[in-house]
Amino acid sequence: MSRGDMAKPLLGHRSMEGDSSSTALSGRTIGVLGSGDFARSLAIRLVCSGFKVVVGSRNPKRKANLFPSAAEVTFQAEAVKKTDVIFVAVFREHYSTLCDLADVLAGKILVDVSNNTEINHHKESNAEYLASLFPACTVVKGFNVLSAWTLQSGARDGNKQVLLCSDNQEAKRTVAEIAQVMGFTPVDMGCMSSACEIENIPLRLLPAWKIPIFLSLGLFLCFFTYNLIRQVIHPYIREQKNKLYKIPIEVVNTTLPCVAYVMLSLVYLPGVVAACSQLYYGTKYRRFPDWLDQWLQHRKQIGLLSFFCAALHAVYSLCLPMRRSHRYQLIEMAVKQAMEKKMNIWVEEEVWRMEIYLSVGIIALGLLSLLAITSLPSIANSLNWREFSFIQSTLGFIALVISTLHTLTYGWSRAFDENQYKFYLPPTYTLTLLVPCTVIIAKVIFILPCIQQRLLRIRRGWEKGRYVKFVLPSATGEFSSGETSSNV
Ligand code: NAP
């Protein structure tokens, strides 16, 4: 699963360097223009982090009591004179009203914290617009991805990253150090041309989730319709039996595991396709098609949705015995047996099937929970690459195999029972097995030494049709070097 959100380098660390800069910075005066929600939260956090704060307002007398007593609230021009770094906590529409301050602002660092109401609302970003109004100032874009609430409650309770960009490295470093002292993690997003991207971030609604959500909804609809036909429509048409009561729980509960299982296999299928492509072309330097790239990038979300469906399936299954229909059916069966004078209804094979089915189901859900937890950035960041790949790749594949066992023990011999073919439609579980079994078979083939070695060499830079020096791990796990011609 992708760790893309941490791909950009962090500016500095809270190590010795960070500590010394924090000592140098604490006590420094920071200015805030504006006295609204964001300005207030910013002032509180800055004061708590040891900075002196001076707030510039059009009406300081009226606003002073909204700020902590340690912060000085004064007129805009007065505030600007007292500091070199000024947070502009004012909406873009009001930037032009600050132009009277151009002379006192000259040579200072302005931090643009503003957001828009729509994605790409203006031609130029707010930060670039601010820079054009105040050419004698240095503008740094940042802090806009934090809400006033996150700022006020501190970095321990909310998003910790502060995305920064500026054309002036020195100014960007100063603001990064301030963010670090405030307990946030500055992330360098490059030069001012990134401001538009940073301003769009808070406006995006689950951008990475759209495709996986539509995919899972599509799968849900397909399987739901299929199960509805088999479990409700078929008995109605063939036997005039009304089974509509099955829709809310039973049909949904047979649909959810299908979606969870197929979605889990879709996490591993793009890796198989990518490996096949690398084997076919004999290189890792050929770009994957866009659809495969997109698919690879969405594996985390697909996996989390698979876990969500599996968890819902577990809850629905636990609720099955609570239903009134279930109680009636049990009583009906008991009465029928009493009438037929049947004493022993124990079927050994059925007992074992159910025990194994439930046991592997619980293990599969446990493994999926582990995969979901370790995909959270805070946990993923505490793992090294080998640990992360062991959990997500090896344990994930084991979860797929165990889910397959769960499905097979559920289906058992139903695929060979002609009564199970409603309107000639095979039992749903046989359909769900298609993609996961393809992935499992492909993965087993990739483990074959001849294929594994070739794949390993390709991933280390070897290319078909080229003469290269390569290094391969020997059977003992140590590295051995050798030279080979391209056709080996
Ligand atoms: P707000 O509560 O409406 O405050 C805006 C402040 O701007 C006012 O209190 C006012 O302070 C000042 N201002 C200066 N010139 C003005 C003018 N001509 N007309 C009106 N007000 C003027 O807004 P906010 O929520 O604090 O947001 C401020 C900035 O932070 C915005 O750019 C916003 O996009 C950004 N931001 C906010 C949040 C958030 O959670 N609220 C999150 C991220 C970014 P004085 O009357 O004292 O001059």
TrEMBL record:
It catalyses: 2 Cu(+) + NADP(+) + H(+) = 2 Cu(2+) + NADPH; 2 Fe(2+) + NADP(+) + H(+) = 2 Fe(3+) + NADPH. Residues 1-24 are annotated as: Disordered. The chain crosses the membrane at residues 211-229, 259-281, 302-323, 356-376, 388-409, 429-451. InterPro entries: Fe3_Rdtase_TM_dom (IPR013130), NAD(P)-bd_dom_sf (IPR036291), P5C_Rdtase_cat_N (IPR028939), STEAP_metalloreductase (IPR051267). It is a multi-pass membrane protein. Its cofactor is heme b; FAD. GO terms for cellular component: endosome membrane; plasma membrane. It is found in: Endosome membrane. GO terms for biological process: copper ion import; iron ion transport. Keywords: Copper, Endosome, FAD, Flavoprotein, Ion transport, Iron, Iron transport, Membrane, Metal-binding, Oxidoreductase, Transmembrane, Transmembrane helix, Transport. Signal peptide: none annotated. Residues 259-401 form the Ferric oxidoreductase domain. GO terms for molecular function: cupric reductase (NADH) activity; ferric-chelate reductase (NADPH) activity; metal ion binding. Residues 29-116 form the Pyrroline-5-carboxylate reductase catalytic N-terminal domain. Belongs to the STEAP family. This is STEA3 Metalloreductase.
